[in-house]
């Protein structure tokens, strides 16, 4: 996953607001995984991932954060930001987020495997 910016956090929080509270941690991990895979895809193939973009968290969250703005609940927004920051903290303890074996892709070849499946 590329380096984070405030835009990444904003779009990820907006995406998380559309998910039920008990599913937010899992969805956040899914967004991180998609950003990681897209980043590997871009680095390996020198083109944007067709679904998850440029490897940023913002690009991975965009399909879920777009649409009409919902009335903002400040507490819910901060709660979503906390979920993202907690997931980032947990990720930094483990090291760089890698493609999990249950995802069928090895971390070394995840971009290449995805590219071949899309062709």
TrEMBL record:
Highest rank taxon of the organism: Bacteria
Pfam families: DUF7742
Domain DUF7742: 2-88
Protein name as catalogued: DUF7742 domain-containing protein
């Amino acid at each position: 996953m590329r380096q984070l910016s405030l835009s990444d956090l904003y779009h990820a929080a907006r995406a998380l607001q559309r998910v039920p509270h008990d599913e937010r941690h899992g969805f956040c991990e899914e967004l991180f995984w998609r950003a990681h895979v897209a980043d590997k895809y871009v680095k390996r193939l020198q083109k944007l991932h067709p679904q998850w973009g440029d490897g940023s968290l913002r690009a991975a969250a965009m399909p879920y954060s777009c649409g009409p703005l919902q009335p903002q609940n400040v507490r819910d927004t901060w709660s979503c930001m906390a979920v993202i920051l907690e997931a980032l903290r947990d990720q930094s303890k483990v090291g760089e987020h890698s493609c999990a074996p249950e995802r069928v892709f090895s971390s070394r070849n995840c971009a290449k495997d995805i590219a071949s499946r899309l062709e």
